[in-house]
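FW: tagging you since you asked about this chain on Friday. Here's the raw sequence from the shared folder, copied in full. Didn't touch anything.
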Amino acid sequence: MDEEIRANLIAAGCDDEFISEFEKCAGDGRKCEKLLAKHRRELLERVHADERRISNLDYLIYSMEKQRSDVT
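HL: got it, structure written out here
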């Protein structure tokens, strides 16, 4: 495998198992594209989950600040 591709996969958060699987499909571009698309979807799902967590924290902070300002 080309070192640039390997470095790109590592930078994209791919683990050794994923990279090994990617190497196996190197001759089949369509299969590799599907594998990359699947990894992308998984990353995006994590981003969305983290965004929901941040929204929950923002609401909690807002509620606490509002409660504090209502008391004073």
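FW: The chain has one domain: 3-71.
HL: agreed, and Residues 29-71 form the longest helix (43 residues).
FW: great, closing this out.
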